[in-house]
Each structure stands twice: as structure tokens, then as C-alpha cells.
Amino acid sequence: MAVTQQLARIPEGYLAACRQAAAASPDGDHRWDPPVCDMLDLDWAPALLKRVGEVAGLGEVPLDALRLATDGDTALELGFLDAHPHAIAHFGGAPTGLDVSQVARVSELLGQIDMPALLATLPADDSDAASLIGQVGSIAGGLRAYLLEHFNALRDFYVDAARRRLHIVLWWD
Questions:
Q1: DSSP state string for 91-148
Q2: For residues 66 and 155, what is the distance between their CA atoms, to the nearest angstrom?
């Protein structure tokens, strides 16, 4: 089973209801079940995307936004999502999240990243490019296509969350 990064766009009211359900339940069942249309599976692209930004010399502010977009922050109280037997993050650390204002800022900065230009700075040979950014093994369809697809999905996910004024919760599963 692959370990992949998951993201969910969540209204504050939904988080509050899950916190309340966890507090009221004898075993901490938070009843976390976001709609599929508000979830994104980033596969294992986050580390590779960040590494492309580092290697390509992406500026600190957009690189920090990319890191925040894929690492989240610990400012949101999400401990109730990490309590057994109902923990959602089966692999990696505890769930993290971004509040509405963080989502808006990250969305704006992701929109300024020219991922095709960053990918163009990598060596032309896919195996050399993969080696440079730490990718082991080949990717069906090619490394650049994989990374561009996942970056575009991430950017679009944040744009929609910002437009709808939603939080984002991140975890590895």
C-alpha cells in the first residue's frame, strides 16, 4: 500500500462539529468524512515539488508557500483527528492545517509559480532529473508530466478553497 498525502477543504463549522463529536463520543469518534469532491490525493509528489523549487532557485517567499501548501501548519487545533482509534493520519505525523487567511495567501503565491519554467531547469534526461530531485524509479508518463499534473491540482485546489473561504487539512495515509 502506498503512503500518499491527502488534503481536504473544510469549512470551520465542519471542523467544529467534528471536534464536538469527538468530545461527546466515548471513544473519540470525530465522524470525519469530508466529501470526496473536497479531497485531493497528492500521491508522493510534495517532496519532489519542493525539491524542484529548491533546485530551480525559486524565491524564498514562493518556496515557503509551496512548503506550507504541502506541509500545513500546526496552528489549527486538530489533535482530535489524531486520537486512536479514529486517527486519520495512519502514516507520518499528526494532521496539520491552514486557516482561511493562510489558504488565501498560499493560493495567491502558488498562482505566481511558473512550474513549467521550473521544470525546464532540470536536466533534459528524466533519469538525471529524477536523481537530482531525489526520485527513485521511473514514473509512468514521465517525471515532468507527473509533477506538473500534481502541482496544477494543488494550485487549483487552493484557489477553490480560497474562493470558498475554506480551511485545508493535510495528512499522510
A1: EEEEEEEE-HHHHHHHHHHHTT--HHHHHHTS-SSHHHHHHHHT--S--TT-HHHHHH
A2: 9
Is the sign of the CA dihedral 169, 112, 145, 136 positive or negative?
negative
* Spatial separation of the C-alpha atoms in residues 10 and 34, rounded to whole Å: 7
pLDDT in tens, 114-134: 999 999 999 999 999 999 999
Neighbours of 6 (CB within 10 A): 18
Are 63 and 54 in contact by the 8 Å Cβ rule? The answer is yes
Rounded to a whole number, what is the largest CA-CA distance in the chain?
Answer: 57
pLDDT reported for residue 1: 46
Q: What is the number of H-type helices and E-type strands within the chain?
A: 7, 4
Q: What is the pTM of this model?
A: 0.95
